[in-house]
Amino acid sequence: MEEIRLQKRMSELGLCSRREAERLISEGKVKVNGKVVTEMGVKVTSNDVIELEGNVVKSNTKTVTYLFNKPIGVVSTAKDDRGRTTVIDFFTKEKTRLYPVGRLDFNTSGLLLVSNDGELTNLVTHPSTHLNKTYFVTLDSFVKDEHIKELEKGVLLEDGLTQPAEIELKFRSMNKTQLQITIHEGRNRQVRRMFEHFDYHVKALNRDSIGFLTLDGVKRGEYRLLTEEEVNKLKKMCLTNKEKNIIPSYKIKNK
Ligand code: URA
Predict the structure, then answer these.
(1) Are 1 and 45 in contact (CB under 8 A)?
(2) Both 194 and 104 in a single domain?
(3) pTM for the whole thing?
């Protein structure tokens, strides 16, 4: 029987993300076969009984994934030490314990997946998955063509060179530029940092899509359940990209 790390098992059981599991373990909230576990290295099999805050976790929890339209001023964590509104506060009527899949900045709005599906979370957030993520960006100045070309090719940020991106200019004047950018990575504050690299300031940022998923029909602050077909398609897409190590729709633009 396969032995896996406790935090991985907790995420597979749909309890929380691996990172959140590590926090819960270190806070002494997790028991394995009746004993509190606080170290990180512990491995378990599917025969071990896991308890979280006194409740035995059953492995047949139905997995669900929601497509949420995040407003600005909301944190992408399950809990916030500073008492700010979290994305999970929008899901109080759902019975399952949910957590955000990846994150959007406090001041970024748009598409965020919220789930209890550990497998989907690990696939979507894994760096080798290269899912397309499209953002609508509003800047408070004129963005030069040469900078657009450089951003498309890749720019050197403090955590390395960005992969090629696609940019579609929507509007441009002396004190405003609006564009859509598609990236294939999910680094922290990536879009803002890409523009800051050329001293531009992002005034507003909205994630319009992840892969084939869009915000169509989902108003700000609202969500919808993904269908089984959508979940399977998303997982398949992640696995295919990972295996082939491809960047979908990546095209070198000869400008
Ligand atoms: N890039 C950013 O800069 N912020 C986000 O929230 C997402 C992508």
Answers:
(1) yes
(2) yes
(3) 0.78
